[in-house]
Amino acid sequence: MRGLHPWHVLRRPVRLGPQAHANDPECGQRPVPALSHHGSQVRGRRLRNLGWLSYGALKGDGILIVVNTVGAALQTLYILAYLHYCPRKRVVLLQTATLLGVLLLGYSYFWLLVPNLEARLQQLGLFCSVFTISMYLSPLADLAKVIQTKSTQCLSYPLTIATLLTSASWCLYGFRLRDPYIMVSNFPGIVTSFIRFWLFWKYPQEQDRNYWLLQT
């Protein structure tokens, strides 16, 4: 039974052949699973960081500026690493160019077509809120798969904890500032985190791992 031991499974070398990369819908290969699984979401998070960075700059909020500057820088490094390991670079470059185009259009609209500072702040806050809510709700697309397969392997428990702590912190910060854009946009993160906690409780990952090891 040595072949079924968890450490033996974890220490197996990563195959670089076609079979090892067949599950990656975006790159066609999977040399770095953590990167390939979240590539599209990272580009969305970078856009979100840049949006809140602009909102913080307009509002003169130093915390928003610092946090989202660091976030945008980390997401940029993430995208560069993803691009380095992804063999189908044309797809990633096209998506990145689309992201830059959206940023350019947004900059042109908010800074050239909306001269009033107060109106610009409200519209930018609304845009960031809608985009943040959509980012928090996007993992709900996996709920049908989780319920159908009775498996939570497609969910990350540490990421769920991080999402709960982050969204709760920003909700409290928005409440403290009486800023509805910050407060309301992060509330769905708390709700979706508790939904995922319930799924982890109903479908423990320990069972998933044992089943996967038996299959291998």
How does this model look, in words?
- With 216 residues, the protein is mostly helical.
- It has helices at residues 6-10, 33-37, 39-59, 62-85, 89-113, 117-137, 143-149, 157-177, 180-202, 205-215.
- 20% of the residues are buried.
- Mean pLDDT is 75; it is low at 1-39 and 210-216.
List the helices and strands and how they pair.
Elements lengths: L5 H5 L22 H5 L1 H21 L2 H24 L3 H25 L3 H21 L5 H7 L7 H21 L2 H23 L2 H11 L1
The overall pLDDT average reads 75
Helix % is: over 70%
What spatial form do the alpha-carbon principal axes imply?
A: globular
Distance between the termini: 12 Å
- Pairing-aware structural class of the strands and helices? mainly alpha
Element string (H = helix, E = strand): HHHHHHHHHH
- β-strand amount: under 5%
Give the low-confidence spans: 1-39, 210-216
